[in-house]
Specification:
Strand content of chain B: under 5%
Distance between the termini of chain A: 70 Å
Shape of chain B: globular
Helix content of chain A: 40-55%
Strand order of the largest sheet of chain A: 4-3-5-6-7
Structural class of chain B: mainly alpha
Largest interface: A-B, 54 and 50 residues
Order of helices and strands of chain B: HHHHHHHHHHHHHHHHHHHHH
Radius of gyration of chain A: 22 Å
Number of strands of chain B: 0
Oligomer: heterodimer
Order of helices and strands of chain A: HEHEHHHEHEHEHEHHEHH
Number of helices of chain A: 12
Radius of gyration of chain B: 24 Å
Number of helices of chain B: 21
Distance between the termini of chain B: 21 Å
Strand content of chain A: 5-15%
Number of strands of chain A: 7
């Protein structure tokens, strides 16, 4: 027995983790794994993996917690601490934010209801695109995943601020330490430093494995938090970008059909919350709605040489909005 | 790795560690050990378990493997059974031997190389047709998938057939033992390439020793750590370069990428071999060592004595020596070495780059035999610089299957080479990637140095050792768990 201490300990710890994972599954935590998923669930929960999701959303005791303490948390959380924040805390925060969000949305609706009868000529959202020059990005901040890192490195946009990181996703977007800007420990910190005129968001491909509803719900929550920090900024959201036909066919998780489903939901959210939806796929797609094989080596990213197209697209898809939106 | 291998139940997967292995070990240790028939029963469990393991990934080709084992068993039986040593008896013996060789090599050719050869032949026919304005008939290209592990088990079968034919040892009469030797899951899909005498004794009678089992668990965990915590992490740098497109990669980043790939392929394969050896020990076998710190080599010749040792041994024993080795004149010897490296290249895959890669080593090994090569080996600094360049360059040739992209990559590594494309290099890209990957490069470099490994081994005993092994194991499990709902964790976007 003593000689096989290590093996016995592995079994005992695995059984404990498995038991905990079993309880977690009972609480509604989902994972796509097969064998060993209970151990995996427990490890992810203990490690604070924010992509661990609970389905269906459980009626938690979140309502009991006073709102002030949570928003205090949000403002003091920085970088690494936030990354380690347990998924549970994340959910509580989410529930509350969602409530706030609903409130703000209904206000918006109330305003627009009042306005429409008075001025029927007022163009509805989204406002028309215009073409601008490079100086438009002077007060812009770009937040996103590896494609945004690509934009920062290869597009030729030299002004504006980039808070981007490879593998960024909506679930931990604000608490991610940007790799393109080492003066701040998190995107949130960067956003709180000064007001910006435009905020460009690009995410979605790393979250392809998650359900659209859950993804959009989290996106709304992130938008609400950004609005709180940057009430006057115009927010652009990029469509989830298409992948190559080969990847789409070979990997169901990353099918363009699934990506389109996310984009429909994203566009609806953008119109509702008055964000600008940027269908960047227009700039790269082939006639079948796929990223052309010649434009990408890995099926997902346009090659470095093609990123100037991205800049041109942004310059020709700008909006000017006067006053509130 | 092909996509088929990616779908396979690899050792470093939750499915293997939390489903297959526990169920298998339970059955294996339910065998009442210490009885006369215990080893037979254990062999049966191991054989059946291995077939399940293989069939889970290859539900059709498992029958190909079984058929291949049956035919080889019959051939070997006939070869050994020929007691009549008259001229006719010798002829019959030779006939069965030839049959076995032709069968095994045809199988390998059909499944692994036929597509490549027919495709290239069609290209040639098309070219001739175009030049001569003829309507050439193109051959239908076979679309058989390459069965996982076929290169490994076919090589084991060949070694067995050849050894029996040359009377190195008597064949195994018990088909269960012979089948277990070929199929046993620790070495089935990625080696080491075991020869029969290395497991014969244990196949006849083996005992389970707690010390050996414990050493097996530890070896397995070290292999798991090498694969999951080092190879998988540093390997993403190579995918980063594919994402950018080689045309826009700066020269320092290109060198960094080649080194990252070199570390990835080493820790991936070394880790997998360690896991195989560890599993073997847990079941009562001692499988042969496959890697011995290859990256400290001071010549390509030495490198191949330390890298994939069981493959080098196979080519030496079953190709080089039967061809005459160094006993057939200078020219004959040169031919033998050339053939060994031609086939070593092809063994790794059916594509031109693998041929180039094999022939590159042929050239280097020949050059290292020259007086200049001997002087190089004698110089500690020069020989290390030589290997620091050779290791990443040779693996770059190995990594990039498309020749046009391979050429492109070399124009990035050596910016003075002529090029005909526009590149969009991001200034300082290597610094950014260097920062991101510094923590992945550090352990990779350290664990290539034998002195570091020996130093760390001192801590791997007693309570502290147990805790460290537990840490490695569950850190690897955590990484695998994170990859579950995020299939692109290792291909991060």
């Amino acid at each position: 027995m003593k000689k096989n201490r290590l093996f016995i300990l592995i079994i005992i710890i695995s059984l404990l983790l498995g038991g905990y994972g079993f309880v977690l599954e009972g609480q509604g935590y989902q994972s796509s794994g097969g064998d060993g998923r209970h151990v995996a669930l427990a490890l992810r929960k203990l490690g604070g993996d924010p992509m661990l999701m609970k389905m269906p959303p459980m009626p938690a005791a979140a309502e009991e917690i006073p709102v002030q303490s949570v928003s205090q948390d949000v403002s003091t959380v920085s970088g690494n601490d936030a990354g380690k924040m347990s998924a549970g805390a994340g959910e509580l925060e989410e529930d509350i934010k969602e409530e706030e969000l609903k409130a703000s949305v209904s206000e918006d609706e109330a305003v627009s209801e009042n306005e429409i009868p008075e001025e029927p000529e007022e163009p509805s959202w989204p406002p028309p695109f215009i073409t601008v020059d490079d100086s438009y990005f002077d007060d812009a901040v770009f937040i996103g995943d590896s494609r945004m890192v690509g934009v920062s490195a290869y597009s030729g946009i030299t002004n504006g601020r980039f808070l981007a990181r490879t593998s960024m996703n909506i679930f931990w977007m604000l608490d991610t330490a940007p790799e393109t800007d080492n003066t701040v420990a998190s995107v949130r910190q960067g956003l709180m430093q000064r007001p910006y005129g435009k905020i460009y968001l690009l995410t979605g491909i790393n979250e392809c494995g998650t359900a659209t509803d859950y993804w959009i719900e989290t996106y709304r929550n992130v938008i609400a938090q950004i609005r709180e920090m940057q009430p006057d900024a115009l927010i652009y959201v990029h469509a989830v970008t298409h992948v190559s036909a080969a990847l789409s066919a070979s990997n169901p998780t990353f099918s363009n059909a699934g990506i389109n489903e996310k984009n429909v939901a994203l566009r609806a959210m953008a119109d509702e919350l008055h964000l600008i939806f940027l269908d960047i796929n227009e700039a790269f797609d082939d006639e079948n709605g796929c990223l052309p094989a010649a434009s990408t080596w890995d099926g997902v990213h346009p090659t470095g040489a093609l990123y100037p197209i991205w800049k041109d697209y942004l310059l020709s898809h700008a909006v000017e909005v006067e006053g509130d939106f | 790795m092909s996509s088929r291998e990616a779908d396979f139940m690899i050792f470093s997967s939750l499915e293997f560690i939390y489903f297959f292995l526990p169920v298998f070990l339970l059955l294996y240790f339910l065998v009442p050990w210490g009885k006369k028939w215990s080893t037979t029963a254990a062999n049966f469990v191991l054989f059946a378990g291995s077939l399940y393991f293989y069939a889970a990934g290859e539900p059709v080709y498992v029958f190909l493997m079984l058929g291949s084992i049956a035919i080889n068993y019959i051939c070997v039986y006939r070869i050994a059974g020929e007691r009549n040593l008259s001229q006719r008896g010798k002829q019959r013996r030779k006939r069965w031997f030839t049959l076995a060789l032709v069968f095994n090599l045809s199988l390998l050719f059909l499944f692994k190389y036929a597509h490549f050869f027919v495709h290239e032949l069609n290209r040639l026919l098309f070219f001739i047709g175009k030049a001569g304005d003829l309507d050439m008939l193109l051959l239908p290209e076979p679309s058989l998938e390459n069965p996982v592990g076929i290169s490994f088990y076919t090589f084991q079968l060949l070694s067995y057939v050849i050894d029996v034919y040359y009377r190195k040892y008597a064949p195994e009469r018990n088909v269960l033992k012979m089948g277990t030797y070929i199929t046993m899951f620790p070495q089935l899909i990625a080696g080491p390439i075991v020869v029969w005498p290395e497991v014969r004794e244990q196949m006849n009678e083996r005992h389970i020793r707690p010390e050996q089992f414990d050493r097996g668990v530890k070896t397995f965990i070290l292999g798991l750590g090498a694969k999951v915590l080092i190879a998988n992490r540093i390997g993403t740098l190579w995918t980063d370069l594919i994402r950018i497109g080689y045309d826009s990669v700066s020269t320092p980043l290109a060198w960094m990428g080649s080194w990252a790939y070199s570390f990835q392929i080493y820790f991936d394969f070394y880790g997998y071999s360690l896991m195989a050896i560890g599993l073997g020990r847990m079941l009562g076998f001692e499988l042969p060592e496959n890697f011995r710190d290859p990256y400290v080599s001071r010549s390509a010749t030495e490198f191949w004595r330390r890298w994939h040792i069981t493959l080098g041994r196979w080519f030496k024993e079953y190709l080089y020596i039967p061809l005459g080795g160094n006993r057939c004149g200078k020219l004959g010897n040169l031919r033998n070495i050339f053939l060994v490296w031609l086939f070593t290249g092809l063994w790794h895959g059916a594509a031109w780059n693998f041929l180039i890669w094999g022939l590159l080593f042929f050239l280097l090994l020949m050059l290292e035999r020259s007086p200049l090569g001997k002087r190089l080996r004698g110089n500690a600094v020069a020989s290390r610089i030589y290997m620091l360049l050779l290791i990443p360059l040779s693996w770059t040739v190995f990594a990039i299957t498309e020749l046009d992209k391979l050429g492109l990559y070399f124009t990035r590594l050596f910016p003075f080479l002529p090029r005909d494309y526009v590149s969009n290099v991001s200034a300082g890209d290597w610094l950014r990637y260097g920062k991101t990957y510094a923590l992945s490069f550090l352990p990779a470099i350290l664990f290539c140095i034998p002195a570091v490994k020996h130093f760390l081994e001192k801590f791997m005993h007693g309570i502290l050792g147990t805790l460290l092994y537990l840490l490695i194991f569950f850190a690897a499990m955590y990484c695998l768990a994170l990859g579950m709902d995020n299939p692109f964790l290792y291909y991060r976007f």
